[in-house]
Amino acid sequence: MSETVIGIDLGTTNSCVCVHLNNKLKILENKEGGRTTPSYVFFTEHSFIVGQYAKRMADAKPEYGIYEIKRLVGRKYDDPYVKKNLNYLPFKVTNISNEPVVVVQTKNQVLKKSPQELCAYILGKIKSDVEAKLGHPVDKAVITVPAYFNIAQREVTLAAAQTAGFSVLKLLNEPTAAALSYYYENKSNVDGYSLVYDLGGGTFDVAILQRSGSDITIVGVDGETHLGGHDFDNLLVEHVCQVLINQHNYNPKNDRRNMRRLNNECEEVKKILSEAEETNIILNAFVPNQNTVDIPITRAQFEAKAEQLFQKTIEIVTRCLEKVSLEKSDIKEVILSGGSTRIPKIQSLISAYFGGKILNKFINPDECVAEGAAIQAALLSKDPAQAISQIKITDVTPLSLGIADFVDVMTFMIKRNTPIPVTRTTNRVTVYNNQANMSFHIYEGERLDAKKNYFLGRLEITDLTPAPPGQCSVTVVMTVDQNGILTVKATETVSNRTKDLKIVYTRGSRSDSDIKSVVVEAEENKKEDELFKQFAEVKGYVVKYCIRAMYNFENKGLVATHKDAYDKCNDVLNRLKDLDVDDEKEVKKLKVEVLALCQPLQKKYAFKHMP
Ligand SMILES: Nc1ncnc2c1ncn2[C@@H]1O[C@H](COP(=O)(O)OP(=O)(O)OP(=O)(O)O)[C@@H](O)[C@H]1O
Ligand SMILES: [Mg+2]
Asked: Molecular function (GO) terms listed (predicted)?
């Protein structure tokens, strides 16, 4: 098997493949001769095609042509973002176990394809084209993903690659890839911070990198998983629909083929407006009983419609700078990547934002992500022909990861923006006497109140060694590997006996898919979180105290003798179940009451294991 490692940019709209060989970066053209491959799958009765022709066929038969799959990857069907996308995608998507599954009805069969399978088809074509081009099998790849892809989205991407026959050496964040390509091409440049502004078809990514010699560190990332060229297209589509409804009494929204045509037309017009000040949206044989509809549109009109979205990208840039405590003036270079950065208004907004800085357009916005992937691939390759002068690169976790304790306080194990790969360890002890199971709720987010974070999964250990409360301990090891994938492992350690326990890691669902809002929300709610923590600490203490006191009463045969104290503990435990953060006073009162009754007994009988 060949040692060649290729770099793949699996884009929302276009995919691109590159390889670093004999000191050169080379974009690998597909069989049709294209440097990028449209991320389209088109189904025929017995088979399917991928790429440029699939896109062409999809225009004619939209119900068989699947695209923008990346927008569905790793998401739940009930994710509002998925719902929003389903409004305009012309193919059918159904809900199977809360996963969005594409349905294609051919003449004789109903095909159901998950986003994972569809991505695998695209990667499958890429693989076969690359092998044809290089003349030997290729099964190792670096694949890029948006920096803000969550773990579920990363897992689906990996699984798709495996299905397509790739062993993935690393999932690389897209803006990091863009920066790598930039640094590679600009070897002579000075040290300092650069900012990558990557606006593609479906996602917006920002990354701030610091370079010092050959060392590159990603110091911060931010972005929006649903902001890109397609949103601009949709603004134009909406505009045309309104004109057609108002002036021609025709609403194309019920006609899939026309909507597909309109989408294509609007995308073309958008691109033309990057060159020309004005143009026309011309629709032939589109409106019933009308030969041609001609809708003039100017660049200024388009810019006005997209203004809010453009501004949003600037806000995200600001937030990313703030997060890492940098000033605009600290940024030495701004690197543009992604097809949508060809929009003149975007370029002028960013340049103005950075005080008239000349933007770096040296790299090709369609190819730089694949190039970066190829550089990373070369760094990982064992093939001498791929050798590359060493660039070191460090990546970070976009959000904090942790587990909830027994009163739902988030224990942050891996902090946001920690370089990965990373491993962190923590210890947990049992709460109850002879507690048999311990479960760990794993969360991603910044809130101290764990339940307000994004739930990733639950790991449960059963058959714990029987022990008094607090006396059986479990070590939890959390790892994020080079692909940004999280593994949690729990090991019970009682009387030097170590058990390896099975990891149960379920995919999370995020109804509010905006990771960035998590960070903002946490900042805005710092006070509330502090109050929660104070409350939870008292509550946690009282719970532990009561359970352990009751254990001692039982253990020492004192339940009957001190029934009032025993019952008090039991009552307090029951009361606590209904109390939340607003009842802090009440919890404190209960604490005083319990301690008043039990502390003298605790001393008198030398209670064990008390908190
Ligand atoms: N000249 C142009 N003017 C405006 N937009 C353009 C131009 N050229 C390309 N685009 C837009 O760029 C987008 C595609 O960019 P790109 O290929 O970088 O995205 P992608 O990598 O497929 O998506 P993502 O990175 O979001 O997954 C499309 O929306 C396309 O319309
Ligand atoms: Mg891209």
From this structure: ATP binding; ATP hydrolysis activity; ATP-dependent protein folding chaperone; heat shock protein binding; protein folding chaperone
Active-site residue list: 9, 70, 174, 198
Q: What pLDDT score was predicted for residue 458?
A: 85
Q: Which fold has domain 401-524?
A: Substrate Binding Domain Of DNAk; Chain A, domain 1 (2.60.34)
Rg (CA), the chain: 29
Q: Among the atoms of ligand 1, which is closest to the Cα of residue 203? A: 26
**Separation of CA 522 and ligand 2 centre (Å):** 29
Per domain, the residue ranges of the chain are: 5-227+308-393, 229-306, 401-524, 526-604
CA-closest candidate to residue 152, choices 79, 90, 201, 86: 79
212: exposed, middle or buried (Cβ count in 10 Å: 0-12, 13-18, 19+): exposed
Of all protein residues, the one whose alpha carbon is nearest to atom 9 of ligand 1 is 339
Q: What's the sign of the alpha-carbon dihedral 411, 415, 421, 422?
A: negative
Residue 334: how many other CB atoms lie within 10 Å: 21
User: Domain 5-227+308-393 class?
Assistant: alpha beta
- DSSP letter at 585 equals H
Q: Are 533 and 409 in contact (CB under 8 A)?
A: yes
Q: Return the HEC string of 11-24.
A: CCCEEEEEEEECCE
**Spacing, Cα 144 to ligand 2 middle (Å):** 8
One-letter amino acid at 121 equals Y
| Cβ of 271 less than 6 Å from ligand 1 | yes
Q: Is the CB of 223 under 6 A from ligand 1?
A: no
Tracing tokens 């440097």 back to the chain, one arrives at: 35
Cα separation, 431 vs 433, in Å, equals 7
* Spacing, Cα 338 to ligand 2 middle (Å): 5
Assign domain 229-306 one CATH number from 3.10.20.70, 3.90.640.10, 3.30.420.40, 3.10.290.10.
3.90.640.10
- Report residue 46 as tokens: 């017995």
Q: Which atom of ligand 1 sits closest to the CA of residue 338?
A: 18
CA distance 236 to 299: 11
Atom of ligand 1 nearest to the CA of 202: 26
Q: Which amino acid is at 413?
A: M
* Cβ(205) – ligand 1 distance below 6 Å: no
Residue from 10, 13, 270 to probe ligand 1 pocket by mutation (most atoms less than 8 Å from CB): 13
pLDDT digit string (tens) for 458-486?
888 888 999 999 999 999 999 888 776 78
Structure confidence by residue, pLDDT tens digits, 504-561: 333 333 323 345 567 777 878 888 888 899 989 999 999 999 999 999 999 889 898 8
